[in-house]
Amino acid sequence: MIIYGSKSVHLKSERSEISVCPNCGTQGSLVLSVYRRHAHIFWIPLFPIGKKGLSQCQHCKNVLYTKEMPLSIRKEYNLLKNKAKGPLWQYAGLGILIITIVCAAISVQLES
Ligand SMILES: [Zn+2]
Q: What phi and psi, each to the nearest 5 degrees, are found at residue 107?
């Protein structure tokens, strides 16, 4: 049985000072968060699939996903997304795969 799927890792959260919550109208109450998804097989992360994010209002607890964000909030989110760097271990499986291929190539060369 092959166990695979994808998982999201939290990268960065930042409170927005200027954005206004579209739900309750409170300024500076939105916290923007960036996540990065990665594919995994047998719980070993293979490679990142992409970033996604959301904002939550600390006042009314309203959650907005990137698609629902007004343009001004999405702009701020995009800035945060570009700053947020994902951890290298999300490439672990890909690294193992490359090492395996390189080792296999070397052993094939040694045999011939
Ligand atoms: Zn709100």
A: -65, -35
Our measurement of the distance from residue 72's CA atom to the centroid of its chain's CA atoms, rounded to an integer in Å, reads: 21
pLDDT in tens, 34-56: 999 999 988 899 999 999 999 99
Q: Where along the chain do its domains lie?
A: 4-111
For ligand 1, the distance from its centroid to the CA atom of residue 28, given in whole angstroms, is: 10
Centre of ligand 1 to C-alpha 63, Å, is: 9
Residue 9 Cα to ligand 1 midpoint, Å, equals 25
Whether 36 contacts 90, CB under 8 Å: yes
- pLDDT tens per residue across span 14-33: 999 999 999 999 999 999 99
- Ligand 1 centroid to 111 CA: how many Å? 67
